[in-house]
Amino acid sequence: MKLKLKPCQMEQITVTYLDQLHYDLKEELLAHDIDPYLDADDVVEVTRSIIAIEVVMKDLMFEDFYYQWKLVNGVEL
After folding, report:
1. So where are the chain's domains?
2. What distance, in Å, lies between the first and last C-alpha atoms of the chain?
3. Up-side HSE of residue 26: CA atoms within 13 Å toward CB?
4. Burial class of residue 53 (count of CB atoms within 10 Å of its CB; 0-12, 13-18, 19+)
5. pLDDT 10s digit of each residue in the chain, 77 long?
6. What's the rounded Cα separation, in Å, for the pair 73 and 21?
7. What's the CA gap between 10 and 23, in Å, rounded?
8. Are 59 and 43 in contact (CB under 8 A)?
């Protein structure tokens, strides 16, 4: 089976996937804050991944939507 997506559909899938990945990584950091279980290197990698996702989301989303998303989902470092 072959599926052909329009560019806007590919972007929406990417945004949805990155949003979920960002949420999962943020939950890992919150769980680690409650009961530390990650190595220091792992915390750095998770934090870098969250920052990278936020940078990509800024490029993919319209400015107004990005700032609204960032207010709700962003991580304050």
Report:
1. 9-73
2. 44
3. 18
4. buried
5. 888 999 889 999 999 999 999 999 999 999 999 999 999 999 999 999 999 999 999 999 999 999 999 999 888 76
6. 12
7. 20
8. no
Residue given tokens 């936020």 in the structure block: 54
* DSSP characters over 18-43: HHHHHHHHHHHHHHHHHS--S-HHHH
pTM confidence score: 0.86
What whole-number distance in Å separates Cα of residue 5 and Cα of residue 11?
A: 10
Report residue 6 as tokens. 């329009």
Sign, CA torsion 48/16/63/26: negative
